[in-house]
Design brief:
five-stranded mixed beta sheet, Glutaredoxin, alpha/beta, 10 strands
């Protein structure tokens, strides 16, 4: 493969949000106000205390303690202005929170950055989180005192329908509060490491990119909370991003601080180009396999040994059907200390299930592992780095594209074009063929989406959940409704969500229920998640995004759910409880009609 131009490592680091260009242009001055370590720590203690009050099941009077903490902060030079800025930004965020779904993160970001333009990025993050905690804390106090304070009750009644359903516990359930506190503490620790001049140049760019993304995510949280619909999935996505940043910061501190690594070690690793890295990887591969990569598009599958068998099977099926367009090289990242006899057995178990090239973990050098973690952003979840025939990276993770479009995603470059084609083909509607497009099903599955959608007299019901009693009751009632309406019924069970374990079997549900294989269930849920997250990232808040959000939310929480479709029209998505109510109401209506 041809050599490519080397780029700064930080230019591709922490690529969670592309809006950082605006952040950079809003802060051009090099004269920044910083927070001393003890001041930053005091502010974090105050933030933590406010969040504890927010998520407490009962009202806890901590006003005296909070006032004491604020008074202590005011003794530091310049803190009165900092507290004033926190108050003003808190008001901006409160307006965003109460915007009834129209919260504008761009507008909020611009206003907050203008207010904080004289602060360092480390200070910006702490102040933004303090302001967020303050706005959430005030809303929490209104809710908790609505029964004993007439004014609080009056305000809460006014805000009904305009607030984020007053569901503040969603923050705790998504582990966002914990995530914010952890990542900002790590970030402050990182900023203190920058005082070591020998480390400063190597770490500074990484630190700044991470800090800007933390800041941006905190602002996004208030916008997400302003929406009326279920926000759990989006909050969990933001929480995951904060966790990933925290892990990367800690990982960098660990390696920069290790005595065995010189201050120039990072630059030495980062100076490796993609083509040089591939040359190193080829040394791990047998000659006959290495020849298969010549002038080929390659997906480098990076994972640990906990990658699921379902994921391996789905990817293997796609690989077998790709008509030679690309090759896959699997690089399991384990580390020499963790690669014991048990790990080796697991590697060979998975290796025997595939036809692609696999490298034994013990052969992968530490230098290559660190490059993959730093440059390709591998943490724990599997990724597939797409490299074309001339050694250019076309995508740092092609797996979501593969789950969504299958091999049509090749050469893994333009997501927007693919989405526009998919949306136009489906008319931007939530339809059955959208969900099953590219889903790999065995020939004897009994599922024929094409003929089902052409038949106006066929009711297709997709459903899921792990409660056997609910499933049996639902199946019985939907069968009755279909018979009464004189329509053909097709029941398809889709499991319990990707991370909720095994679903029910056909023996438990009945022989007339179609239960697809575990790997096809896994692909269904992964594809649905990929569709949802892509829609969120592209800002497409259409019907498909809203309905996918519902189903992923049900699956993620282990809840029962159902979808109904007839013909080529749009589907109806409901919770399990609502689905049962619909069926019960139908039975009552029919009984009344026939006497």
């Amino acid at each position: 493969m041809a050599a490519e131009t080397k780029t700064s490592p930080a230019s591709r680091y922490y690529s969670f949000d592309k809006s950082s260009q605006q952040i950079q242009t809003t802060n051009k001055t090099n004269s920044f106000q910083t927070l001393e370590p003890d001041v930053g720590q005091h502010l974090l203690d105050l933030i933590q205390s406010i969040f504890q009050v927010v998520v407490a099941s009962k009202d806890i009077d901590q006003s005296a303690e909070l006032n004491k903490m604020i008074s202590s902060l005011e003794t530091f030079q310049g803190m009165r202005q900092v507290l004033n800025d926190i108050r003003d930004i808190s008001c901006e965020m409160s307006c965003n929170l109460l915007a009834a779904g129209s919260g504008n993160v761009e507008k909020t970001r611009t206003a907050v950055l203008e207010r904080l333009r004289s602060y360092s990025w480390s200070a910006k993050v702490v102040i933004a989180i303090a302001a967020f905690a303050s706005s959430i804390g005030e809303l929490s106090m209104l809710v908790k005192h609505r029964d004993d304070e007439p004014m609080a009750k009056f305000l809460v009644n006014i805000l009904k329908g305009y607030s984020p359903k007053l569901d503040l516990n969603a923050l705790a359930e998504a582990k966002l509060i914990e995530g914010m506190l952890k990542v900002v503490r790590t970030n402050l620790d990182f900023s203190n490491r920058l005082k070591q001049e020998s480390m400063k140049e190597a770490m500074l760019e990484l630190y700044l990119n991470a800090t800007k993304n933390i800041f941006d995510i905190v602002l996004q949280i208030s916008t997400v909370l302003s929406r009326r619909e279920d926000v759990h999935v989006e909050l969990e996505s933001l929480s995951k991003q904060l966790t990933e940043i925290n892990i990367q910061l800690q990982d960098n501190m660990k390696y920069f601080g290790a005595e065995r690594i010189s201050p120039n070690w990072y630059e030495e690793v980062s100076e490796i180009s993609t083509s040089e890295l591939i040359a190193k990887i080829k040394k791990y591969i047998e000659v006959r396999d290495s020849e298969k990569l010549r002038n080929k598009h390659v997906l480098f599958l990076i994972s640990d040994l906990n990658i699921s068998i379902e994921e391996i099977k789905v990817l293997e099926r796609l690989y077998e059907k790709n008509e030679g367009k690309y090759e896959i090289v699997w690089l399991p990242i384990v580390g020499s200390l963790a690669y014991d006899e048990k790990a080796a057995a697991r590697f060979w178990e998975l290796r025997q299930m595939t036809k692609w090239i696999g490298v034994e973990p013990s052969r992968i050098e530490e230098e290559v592992i660190q490059y993959i973690k730093r440059e390709w952003h591998f943490i724990k979840e599997a990724i597939a780095v797409s490299v074309n025939e001339v050694g250019e990276i076309t995508c740092l993770n092609a797996l979501p594209m593969l789950w969504t479009w299958g091999n049509r995603a090749f050469p893994f470059t333009d997501k927007i074009t693919l989405w526009n084609e998919l949306d136009e083909r489906n008319g931007w509607t939530w339809r059955l063929d959208l969900l099953f497009d590219q889903l790999i099903l065995p020939g004897d599955s009994g599922i024929d989406i094409q003929s089902w959608t052409k038949s106006e007299g066929t009711l297709v019901c997709l459903f899921g959940g792990g409660d056997i009693s609910w499933n049996q009751e639902f199946i019985q009632k939907v069968k009755y409704a279909a018979r009464s309406a004189g329509v053909t019924l097709k029941l398809v069970y889709l499991g319990v969500g990707k991370k909720k374990g095994k679903g029910l079997t056909r023996n438990q549900l009945g022989r007339d229920v179609l239960v697809i294989q575990s790997e096809s269930q896994w692909q269904f849920w992964s594809r649905l998640e990929s569709i949802l997250y892509a829609k969120i990232r592209l800002g497409k808040k259409d019907e498909v995004m809203q309905e996918a959000l519902k189903v992923v939310g049900y699956g993620g929480n282990g809840e029962e759910w159902a979808m109904f479709s007839m013909g080529e029209g749009a589907m109806v998505t409901t919770s399990g409880k609502t689905a049962l109510t619909i069926m019960e109401d139908y039975q009552m209506w029919r009984s009344d009609m026939i006497g």
